[in-house]
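Pasting as-is:
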Amino acid sequence: MSDKDHEALHATEDEEARRKKRRKWTIGITAFLIFQVVQALFFVLVIMKFRSPKFRVTPPTMIQSLTVGTPASPSFDMSFIAPIQIKNTNWGPFKYDATAVYFTWQGIPVGQAYIPKNKANFKSTKKIDVGVNLKLDSANLPSNPNLATDLSSGIITLSSRGELNGKVTVMFMFKKKKTSVMDCSMMILVSTRQILAWGCE
């Protein structure tokens, strides 16, 4: 093989090596860009997606006290510890303002519980035990006979509603206002002070 043939062969090999090197660089850069795009999509769709925390009253373990009136003068007076949960599924803390949970019987206010200002950490559930005293007297319901009917059935149905306002902070700098609304109900068996049913919307 002549010198010219050797030079041509080396030139071909060098060119092939350069092509392989360029191909590797191209593949590496493409893979890096794809990784960056996937990271950006994950950040935008998962981490930066602000969700409203769930605000709930869970069933009390027991009704501490419960007294009811007579059929002629129906009333009820009860107290219990209401376990309240604030479930924050965001990738950042949820700082919320003080608020109140209002308890009603057939839309009539019977009591409330206060929730102090605090925060629920990221991906966690804040649990708060709040003392509740509920009272309804037939003297305040001259035109409503349903209270006597409910008490004679041995079941009291209560509703609880509340609104929790606060801010979710992600990556220590991105903030967004969020509101969580509670709308729950429970049925209480008077004779045993047991929670028969409970649910939230």
